[in-house]
Amino acid sequence: MKYMKSRPYLFSIFALGLALLLSLAIGSVFLSPSQLWAALSGHGTQTSTAILWSIRLPRTVLIALTGMALSGSGAAYQGLFRNPLADPFLIGVASGAGLGAVIAMSVKWPYTFWGLMAIPMAAFVAALLTVFIVYSLARLGKTVPTTNLILAGVAFSSFATSLTSFLMLRSTGEVRRALGWLLGGASQSGWTAILAITPYLVIGLGVLTLGGYALNLLQFGDDQAQQLGLNVTRAKTVLLVSASLATAAAVAFSGIIGFVGLVVPHVMRLWWGADYRLLIPLSIISGATALILSDVIARVVLAPQEIPVGIVTALAGAPFFLWVLRRAKNQGYW
Amino acid sequence: MLKIENLSVNYGTRRILRDISLNVQGGEVLALIGPNGAGKSTLIRAISGVIPSESGRVRTNGDDFQALSPIQRARYVATVPQAVSLPPAFTVWETVLLGRTPYLGFLGQPSGADEELARRALERVSAWTLAERRVGELSGGEAQRVLLARALCQSTPIMLLDEPTAHLDLQYQVSLLELVRELAHHDGLAVLIAMHDLNLAARYADRVALMDAGEIKALGEPGQVLRPEMIEAAFGLRVQVVKHPFLDVPLVLPDSRK
Predict the structure, then answer these.
(1) Residue ranges of domains in chain A, CATH in brackets
(2) Cross-chain Cβ contact B101/A275 below 8 Å
C-alpha cells in the first residue's frame, strides 16, 4: 500500500494552480498573468493591485478554503458512514450548521475577529447536533442504510432551512444580508472571515488527513476494525467531530453549497483508488479546485451579474448524484 | 492459551451466553457447533472484544482481555470473519497488510518486515497471485483465504474463525480447514472455530463444544460429543451416527425414517 504516491498530488496541485490563476484573472477587469504578477509583487498599477488584494484574492482564498472543507469532510463522511452518498449537504449537516450560524448572526456580535469567530463556533455546535440527530434517526439496529441516511438528512435539512428563513425574515438589516449568503455566495468575503475560519479548518482537515488509515480500517466494518486493533468508538468520534468542524467553518462564511463534498471525493476515488490516506488529502486539494472553477462560472455566466456559486454546484452536482445513486444500486451497496 | 471463565453476555435484557467456560490449548483446534442462534458467533465476538460481557472473564497467559486496549488485544487474538460485505475497491495486498495494524502507528505505514510477513501470509494461503486484484472481484473461496491471510499477518497466538466455510464450495471448505488444522498442529496456534457442518467439525477439530441456547451442552473429542441423543436434543432432529468408512471419526447422518 504505497500511499506516498507523488503523481496524484502533482496532478491535483497543478490543476489547483490553473484554477487559482483563472479565478484571479477573470472578472469585470481582466488581469493578464504579467499584470497579476506585478500586482502580487507590489509593482502593479493602483487599480490592479486594489482589485487583486481587496476583491479577487480574498474571494478566491475563501472559496478555496470552503471547497477544501466541504470536499475533505465529504470524503470523511462517506468513509465514516460507509456510504458513497454521504455529503455535508445531503446528510443535513450543512443546513444544520447554517441554522447555527444564523442564530449566532442574529445576536449582535461586534464585527471583529473574535466576534466573527463565534459564528463558526455556533455553526459547529449545530453541525454536531445535526450529525447526532440524523444518524440516530437513520440508524436501523447496527446499520445505517443509505436511503434512511439521505431521507433523514433531507428532512432535517428542510426543517433547518425553514427555521433559518423564518429567523431571517423576522430580523432586519444585518441578517437579511445573509439571504444571499444562504444560497452559497461567499458574499461575506474579506480577509477577516478567512482569518476566522482558518484555525477551524487547519484542525478539522488536519485531523481528517491523519485519520486516513483509521478510515481504511473502518471500511471493513466496526467489528473487523476493532478486531484489527482500532479503538473504533474513539476513532469515529474524533473523525466525526473533525469533519463537522470543517463543514461548520465552511458554512459559517460561505453559506450552504451542496454536492462539492459528494462529487469531488467520488472522482478522486475513481481516478486514484480507495485508500483514504490518499483520498482525504486529494479531496481537500481538488475540492478547492472544483469550487474555484464553479465560482468562476458563477461570475461569468451572467456577467456583470453574479449568481450564487451554490447554484452552479447544484446544477452540476445533482445529476451526478443521481448517476452515483444508480451506480451504487447496481453495485449492490444497498 | 485461551481461557474463558464463566462468561455471560446479554443483548439488552436477553441473556445470549450463559456461564460459558472453555479452554483452548496452543496447538489445538476446538470447534463450536450447534444450531443457528445457539450463540456461536456471539461467543466469538465476545472473545474478540467487540461486544461487552455481562460477567466472567477471558484470559490469556494471565492477561485479562477486558483490561486490554483494542490494539493490545489484537496482538493476542486474530479473528477471521465471514467473507461477506468486504469493501470492494481495496486490493488484496492492502487488505492483508491491515493485519499488521496492531504493530503500526496510527498512520499505518508498514515497514519492509511487515510487507514480508504479508507476502508470506498470502503465500501460505496460496493467494500470492491475487495480490493485485480488488477484493470485490474475488470469489467467496478466494476472499475467505485473503481474510485468513490477514489474520495470519497479525502474528497472534490465538485465532478465532466465525463459520469461515459457510458459503464455500466443498473443495474450498476442505482446503481451508486443512490449513487451519496445520496452523494449530504445526504452528502451535490455539484455534477456536465456529462451524455449521458437523462432519467437517468431526474430521478437522481435535475437540468440539456443542452449544445450544447460549450454553455449552457437551465438550470433548468428536466421538464423545457427536452422539445421537446429544445432537437430537440440540438440533431437534433424529440422526444416525456411524463410523467413518476409513477415518477414525464419527459421521452424522440425518435420519428421515419416521
Answers:
(1) 7-330 (1.10.3470.10)
(2) no
